[in-house]
Design brief:
Blueprint lengths: L2 H5 L3 H10 L6 E6 L3 H11 L7 E6 L10 H10 L16 E5 L4 H4 L4 H8 L3 E3 L5 H5 L5 H9 L8 H24 L8 H7 L11 H21 L4 H13 L13 H31 L3 H14 L3 H6 L8 H14 L2
Parallel strand pairs: 1-2, 1-3, 3-4
Helix pairs in contact: 8-13, 9-11, 9-12, 13-14
Length: 340
Amino acid sequence: MSSRLKDNIGSKYFEAANAMKSKQARRRIVAYVESYDDIFFWRTVLSRFEDETRYFEVMLPSHRKLERGKKSVLMNFIEGSGEGQANSGERLGTDMIACVDADYDYLLQGATPQSKRVVSSPYVFHTYAYAIENLQCYAPSLHDVCVAVTLNDHRVFDFEDYMRQYSEAIFPLFVWSLWAYKTGRHNRFSLSDMSRIIDPSGFSVYDPQPSLNHLRHKVGVRVRQLQQEFPDAKEEYLAVKEQVKQLGVTPQTTYLYIQGHSLFDVVVLPMLNKVCNRLRQERQDEINRTARHYMQRKNEMSCYEHSLQDIRQTLKKNVGYARSPQFMRTQQDIEKYLNP
């Protein structure tokens, strides 16, 4: 099959291919995702729905060129592009689905063309959280990440309390950010602007409050600036605030709905580095203290250090999000699609 023909295949092609199989053969459902990192995540979503009658194959959206990203998935397989483009809904179907990050599209509830594609198509599934990175940073699972990295189960830091306070601090600015995108004013307050402000620089494992207080101050300053710049936006702001709460966002869980890369790289990864450093040091001190002689200390330290894991890669493979309400909602959507 030529690469051009491969790019024009759709759900009907997979339906026909499935129909040609024997009755004993399993039905193949293709799930297109945005990037390489998404393949593992969506495999964790879809694998529980595989049985003797069906299986999923998770892949990137293009066979012809190295094309990735949400727009590639949505434009190629919902609306199509170029010659022979399909009408909306003709490409995706019962045997071909799209799985994407929610970004702001879920919270915008159809206010933009892309948001409408995400929330309206019965064959597009999303994360409910902003992105897979947000779910990888699911607060109740972060202690488990530290244990996997350091092999030390001592709870030296309360991740859930910290992320709750962090979320409450940034919530007012988050609502302004969503308001800006919903009203077409994102050039006046972009996601990059938001990311710079919500960086909790100066974080300390021993006393995180100073960094949180500084964060609250930065957020307050920017909120007052936006209030002065848009004095007539109060009613719209309050309406957006109420809408996001109805959609499941709370001031305590805001971190799940901000830009995923910023949360992962700017907030959580630096925090984990410091917590894991402390846990490693604890374990090393224990080995130094309890070893009976030099050779035992050397061997034990070498064994321990060879067992340590990379923090970034461990966080990327964190599946603790499986118990999050957002992950469960995505699975409920898949269940409904398979058993309408």
